[in-house]
């Protein structure tokens, strides 16, 4: 048979006769033939894989989201091209250009990865390509955003520390500039912390606010700064679990016990949170659900017929998990 006839069978053309279809399928089964999806994308300029850019693959929070995303996409027969921006905008720009050259079908951004102007340019040039941002809010037409209500969650964990009768509660925030500074959760978590203090009739002390970088080293250095003050805190809310772990290490180095001398709470509920010493109180993020919902939304938008799909903005809730690190 001709290449065109075989191609028609492989691509599900309706004009092929049943007898021809059976004969081609028999040969496919015998040879174990599988279409090369990348070659298809290069030829048709319609990709099969989904591009995923993650701000930090060393952070278990992001890898759990990617796991949920890839598992759900695999059920639809799609694969992912995974890139790590390492909290660097210039690397994210390179990743985006590489994914465009690979003719991706859609794009998922996890965390604070791509600059807004770069994403605007991508959407303008590829209006039919679905774009989903997880834990990063973009005001761009056609971009869907899946967010967690970080302000409410930060209010909850701060309120928990207040209810435990800690009187000097500090916060370790994300960075104020560069990648991470625009992350949806950074300002929102600070706002939730401040609102909880205000509702309890407590003043917000500038000395109890330290800047981190969402990594262990950032939490360690921020905790050292907090402990260097004459009036050290007796409880600390770190804006993610990696920084909370760094804060615990800095407290121990200073000769302090957790939680007897200083309580520490985190955010994310990554796998090590339950097995660190002491087990870490944290806000559990719906990590697998975020990835699965992103994949389902992406699949639905890819099947949309027309010049543009309908973007979605959905907000999830975090859940307080109380463990030993914050209990007297």
Question: Please, could you describe this protein's structure?
Answer:
With 328 residues, the chain is an alpha/beta fold. It folds into 3 domains: 3-34, 434 Repressor (Amino-terminal Domain) (Orthogonal Bundle); 44-148 and 286-318, 3-Layer(aba) Sandwich (Rossmann fold); 150-284 and 320-326, Rossmann fold, CATH 3.40.50. 43% of the residues lie in helices and 16% in strands. It has helices spanning 3-10, 18-31, 37-44, 60-75, 89-101, 116-125, 150-163, 184-199, 216-228, 241-253, 287-302; strands at 50-54, 80-84, 106-110, 131-134, 143-148, 169-173, 209-211, 235-238, 263-268, 281-284, 313-316, 319-321. The strands form 2 sheets. It has a 6-stranded parallel sheet with strand order 2-1-3-4-5-11, with helices on both faces. Strands 7-6-8-9-10-12 form a 6-stranded mixed sheet, sandwiched between helices. Helix 4 packs parallel to helix 11 and helix 7 packs parallel to helix 8. It is elongated. The termini are far apart.
Helices and strands, with pairings:
Blueprint: H1 3-10, H2 18-31, H3 37-44, E1 50-54, H4 60-75, E2 80-84, H5 89-101, E3 106-110, H6 116-125, E4 131-134, E5 143-148, H7 150-163, E6 169-173, H8 184-199, E7 209-211, H9 216-228, E8 235-238, H10 241-253, E9 263-268, E10 281-284, H11 287-302, E11 313-316, E12 319-321
Parallel strand pairs: 1-2, 1-3, 3-4, 4-5, 5-11, 6-7, 6-8, 8-9, 9-10
Antiparallel strand pairs: 10-12
Helix pairs in contact: 4-11, 7-8, 9-10
């Amino acid at each position: 048979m001709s290449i065109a006839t075989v191609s028609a069978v492989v691509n599900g053309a309706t004009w092929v006769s049943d007898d021809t279809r059976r004969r081609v399928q028999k040969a496919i089964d015998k040879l174990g033939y599988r279409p090369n999806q990348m070659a298809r994308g290069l030829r048709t300029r319609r990709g099969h894989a989904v591009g995923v850019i993650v701000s930090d693959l060393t952070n278990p929070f992001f890898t759990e989201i990617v796991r949920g995303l890839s598992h759900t996409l695999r059920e639809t027969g799609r694969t992912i091209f995974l890139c790590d921006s390492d909290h660097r905008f210039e690397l994210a720009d390179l990743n985006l250009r590489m994914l465009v050259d690979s003719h991706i079908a859609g794009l998922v951004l996890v965390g604070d990865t791509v600059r807004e102007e770069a994403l605007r340019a991508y959407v303008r040039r590829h209006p039919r390509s679905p774009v989903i941002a997880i834990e990063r809010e973009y005001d761009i037409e056609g971009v869907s955003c899946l967010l967690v209500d970080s302000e409410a969650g930060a209010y909850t964990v701060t309120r928990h520390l207040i209810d435990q009768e800690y009187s000097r509660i500090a916060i370790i925030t994300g960075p104020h500039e560069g990648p991470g500074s625009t992350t949806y959760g950074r300002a929102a978590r600070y706002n939730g912390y401040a609102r909880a203090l205000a509702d309890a009739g407590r003043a917000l002390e500038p000395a109890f606010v330290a800047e981190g970088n969402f990594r262990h080293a950032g939490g360690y250095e921020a905790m050292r700064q907090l402990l260097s003050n004459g009036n050290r805190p007796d409880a600390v809310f770190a804006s993610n679990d990696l920084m909370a772990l760094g804060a615990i290490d800095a407290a121990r180095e200073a000769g302090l016990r957790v939680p007897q001398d200083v309580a520490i709470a985190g955010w994310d509920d990554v796998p090590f949170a339950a097995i660190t010493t002491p087990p870490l109180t944290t806000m559990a993020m719906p990590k697998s659900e975020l990835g699965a919902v992103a994949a389902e939304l992406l699949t639905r938008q890819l099947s949309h017929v027309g010049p543009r799909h309908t973007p979605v903005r959905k907000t999830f809730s975090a859940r307080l998990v109380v463990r030993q690190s914050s209990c007297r």
